[in-house]
Amino acid sequence: MKRFKGFTLQEMAIVLAILAILLAIAVPNYIAMKKRADVNSVATQFAAMIRELYEKIDSEMEYDTYTSAPGGHISKYYIKIDNYYIPDPVTGERSLKIQLIKFDASFTPQETVLKDIKSKTVKLQNALGSSILMDSAGAVATYITFKPNGEIVRFTGSVLARGNVSTFSAQNKIEVIPVSGHGYKRVVVLNSVPPGSVEVQ
């Protein structure tokens, strides 16, 4: 009858060393792959949301011509971007939230979320030469919508009480990057010509 011979301490040490090497290679690659997947997903969804925003505005002729003087029109549709600025009222956690909202300007104005994108691993930033996103000063969300000529309107605060209002007639770029480790990014390109066109680079 054969007796089973167990592993020696030296053999076990070699196996553990090989496993450690494999893990040292696999774990960083998995983390990098996960970050790339998250960035790609947010960039693709964000671009699709911008296209949907313009389609809704254009099909219903609900362009934004708001001015502080009487006669300006408030659109029904906006994209609202909270880039880790405003904590969740229940949990207190901060995350990236991008929402396609429908604004009701009736007696009690309210925002209804039609679609949203949430991420704790990805954030947005202005590309070089672009200023369409606001920074964290004041911890407020950025709103984006369109004018009749296809120009992009950006403001902060709320739909009715606007601050930092700017109109963009040229191409603007928003970078989608991981929260930690900026080795990988996608760029969402917002074009005012043709109106509402968006691409992901």
Automatic annotation (TrEMBL):
The keyword Phosphoprotein does not apply. InterPro entries: N_methyl_site, Pilin-like. The keyword Transmembrane helix applies. The chain crosses the membrane at residues 12-31. Signal peptide: none annotated. Keywords: Membrane, Transmembrane, Transmembrane helix. SUPFAM superfamilies: Pili subunits (SSF54523). It holds the Pfam family N_methyl. This is Prepilin-type N-terminal cleavage/methylation domain-containing protein. It comes from Caldicellulosiruptor diazotrophicus.
